Structure formats: C-alpha cells, structure tokens
Amino acid sequence: MNEPHLPSPLSYLKESHAFVPVAHGRSAASVFRLENDRRTAMFLKTAPSSGAATLRGEAERLTWLEGKVPAPSLIDFFEDASGAYLLMSAVPGTALIAYNHEESGVRRRMAALLGKALRSLHAVDISGRAFSDAREGGTERRFEADFGRFDDKKIAILRDVQSRLPPLAKEVLAHGDPCLPNVLVMDDELSGFVDVGNAGVGDPYRDLALALWSLEYNYGVGLDETFLEAYLSEVGLQ
After folding, report:
1. What's this model's pTM, rounded to 2 decimal places?
2. CATH fold of 94-235
3. Tens digits of residue pLDDT in 119-174
4. What is the 3-state secondary structure (H, E, C) of 136-203?
C-alpha cells in the first residue's frame, strides 16, 4: 500500500509524518498509522467515493462517543469527489488479539476483561443519541453484512448465548464488531475501543455472540464462561 494521495486541506500531514500502512481486516478502507519524530501517532482512514458514507458515519460516531466511551478522538474529516478522509488519534494500549499466544492464565484474564469492557459499553446512556444502528435488517442479515456470507457457527453461538443468559436490555449501545483486534487494553484495564463505524443502538446478544466467536477463534475453546461471568458480574446478574 503506497502513501495515499491527500487533498489540499490534509497535505500538511506529509510534511511531518511517516505513513505506515496497517492491515485492516475486512474493511474496504485503507488505513495508515501516522508517526513523527515526537513519537506521537494518529491514524488516517481513506476510502473512495463509494465508501465515503462509511467513514462519514464513523466520524459522526466518534464525535458522539467523545467523553462517553474510550475511543479515538476525531481530529479531522474531509470529503470531496475523490473520496473521504478520516483522521483520528491513536488509542494507547495493546489490542487483545496480541495475547493469542500467551499462556492460558493470561488469555483467561483477557477474556474476563473483554466481558467487563463490553458491559461498560452496553451501559452507556443512549438517550439523545446522534445515530442509529449502522446495520439494517434482522440479526442473521447483520451477520451476513459483517462476514460476507451467512455463517451457521456464529448464528449457533448467538442462539446459545440467548438461551443461557437472563433477559438483557433490548437495546444498548452496541459496538457492532467487538472482536479482539478492536478492543485495546493497558495495565490490565480497558484503554479503548476502535473501529466504531458500526456502533449503534442494537441487540446486546449480537455483540456478545461476536465476542465469543472471536475469543474461540483467536484464543481457543473454554473461555466462554469466564467471559460471560465477567459480563454478568458487571451487570449485577451473576
């Protein structure tokens, strides 16, 4: 991935920053970490005009989440005929995905931290929200949108978690993709959520199912109870 073309309002960034491409999973956006001699960092997402709405939505969410949820701060957003450009601060800490090769005790501790972190997100007051759910349709259609095809395993996890947990609020502030690469920790505490472009008012069970899927995929089996107990202890239903 080459250094991106920047529109005039953002061209100043090239004078003082190095652009380091970042692999960004399933996102259609190009992502760069911007570094300078002062060792401060920012992230830039760029998308062609066909993907501009996605970055515009993420900018709106970052603005609304400011002060409510640990997440990147919006620095700048620019859109023209060529596409959209989203500049945001870096969140300190390490993504949970980085602990996938650690010993089982560490992975168990991270699974519990993920449960508590997700519950803290779901507890955010959604009154006066500035955006709705980014996904249209029912839960199964949302899985299709997230993963490109219908996935029986993820649907099975969703059904299982719905049957195992006590009734939860019908609507919460949901992340939309609370997988391990999108949750950062520092000193065994949540330091922030990233990739919040799909955040919105939604079903908590869907977030839980996606987190459980990611835990098993990246850490292996046997951590679901640890994760769910931590989530429930935060909600007071354990």
Report:
1. 0.87
2. Aminoglycoside 3'-phosphotransferase; Chain: A, domain 2 (3.90.1200)
3. 999 999 988 776 655 444 444 445 455 544 457 888 899 889 999 998 898 889 99
4. CCCHHHHHHHHHCCCCHHHHHHHHHHHHHCCCCCCCEEECCCCCHHHEEEECCEEEEECCCCCCEEEC
